[in-house]
Design goal:
Pfam families: FG-GAP_3
Keywords: Signal
Helix content: under 10%
Low-confidence stretches: none
Oligomer: single chain
Protein name: VCBS repeat-containing protein
Organism: Rotaria magnacalcarata
Number of helices: 0
Length: about 110
C-alpha cells in the first residue's frame, strides 16, 4: 500500500471586513434565513447585543442587524431549540449570569431574547 500525497497551492484573496458592535467576542456561521448560504452571527460584548450579517452571495454579507442581549454577551451558538426547523440563536450573557435565546421568525429575523 502506497499513500498518496496531495500537494495543493491554496491561496486566499484579500480580506473583507464588516462592521460590528463594540468588542466582538464570539462568532458562528449558520443559515438563519433558509437560503442555503451560511450567515454570520456575532456577539458584541461591549455593545450588549448580537449581530446577524446575512449572506448575500458571492462571498459578501449585508450590514449587521442587531438584537439586544443581556449584559456582556461573550459566547454564541446556533441551533433549532424549539423544533420548528429554523436556526435560533443562543447567547451566554456573562455579567447577567444567564443564557438568552433568540427565536428565529423564519425570514432571518429574530424575536427578542427570552
Amino acid at each position: 500500500m502506497q499513500p498518496f500525497i496531495t500537494q495543493c497551492n491554496i491561496t486566499f484573496t484579500g480580506q473583507t471586513t464588516y462592521s460590528t458592535g463594540n468588542a466582538p467576542n464570539s462568532v458562528v456561521a449558520a443559515d438563519v434565513n433558509g437560503d442555503g448560504k451560511p450567515d454570520i452571527i456575532v456577539v458584541n460584548y461591549g455593545s450588549n447585543n448580537v449581530g446577524v450579517l446575512l449572506n448575500i452571495g458571492n462571498g459578501t454579507f449585508a450590514a449587521q442587524t442587531t438584537y439586544s442581549s443581556g449584559n456582556y454577551p461573550n459566547s454564541v451558538v446556533a441551533g433549532d431549540v424549539n423544533g420548528d426547523g429554523k436556526i435560533d440563536i443562543i447567547v451566554v450573557n456573562y455579567v447577567s449570569n444567564n443564557v438568552g435565546v433568540l427565536l428565529n421568525r423564519g425570514n432571518g429575523t429574530f424575536a427578542a431574547q427570552t
